[in-house]
Write a structure and sequence with these properties.
Blueprint: H1 7-19, H2 21-57
């Protein structure tokens, strides 16, 4: 996944400092769920686009 800090890490740090541990944990859960749903969906879209590109390049 992400090896460098990004906007999600800034959000987590800010929430933990300003609102405490429970708010930071709920934000972390949201980030994890976002990755869990985003990654497989992005992969399936990539596969569909690759198939479409392969079909467009093949002469009939």
């Amino acid at each position: 996944m992400a090896l460098t800090p990004g906007p999600n890490m800034i959000c987590l740090i800010t929430r933990s400092i300003m609102q405490g541990c429970l708010a930071a944990f709920s934000s972390l859960l949201g980030v994890i769920l976002g990755f869990v749903f985003y990654m497989p969906r992005a992969e399936s879209i990539r596969q569909v686009l690759n198939k479409m590109g392969a079909q467009a390049e093949d002469p009939i």
